[in-house]
Amino acid sequence: xxxxxxxxxxxxxxxxxxxxxxxxxxxxxxxSTSTERHVAVLVxxxxxxxxxxMPIGYLANRGVNITVIGPDxxxxxxxxxxxxxxxxxxxxDVTPDDFDALIIPGxxxxxxxxxxxxxxEFAKNFFNTGKLVAAICHGPQVLAAAGVLKxxxxxxxxxxxxxxxxxxxxxxDQALVTDKNLITSRVPDDLPVFAEAIDKALNSAR
Length: 206
Hints:
Elements: H1 2-11, H2 19-28, E1 38-42, H3 49-60, E2 65-70, E3 74-77, E4 84-87, E5 89-90, E6 101-104, H4 109-113, H5 117-128, E7 132-136, H6 140-146, E8 153-154, H7 161-166, E9 170-171, E10 177-179, E11 182-185, H8 191-204
Parallel strand pairs: 1-2, 1-6, 2-5, 6-7, 7-11, 8-9
Antiparallel strand pairs: 3-4, 10-11
Helix pairs in contact: 1-3, 3-8, 5-6
């Protein structure tokens, strides 16, 4: 189903993408090298469109199975465009054992997710398994709410620096930060290195 999503996104011109982002997506889709993995993408209403569809498309093209999860199933809309995505499963219906990695896109959705106990609990439990977690932009807000960032080096959009540091994280203002099982990036411009780092981490976990 989610591979179909990637095809539909491309066929529809990647609704909501800027020309620059579309060009980056085109370059991302040039090869397929990864073995099959299962990755969850945690979203709700108000996600940032590119931060969801670009990692989904990049990984799906490399043989990764993607499941979109959220507080409830159904269709949700991006805050910055008319782009929509379907949440396949509620967080209450999945466990960390179902996936090899968790991705948390940014936008306005993380501010809602961090107020949803089931989403925060899922993120906490997933992080504590030691499996790969990747968050971009406002996405690390969910991890801060989950209480898993103490002593962890991270990044995110600069407006949440104080929130991350209050949660015990060390903040670095750079495109990509990796620490233990966590990958973080700041903004949509960082998506190419963000998606590539996720792919490499999934492959190294084979």
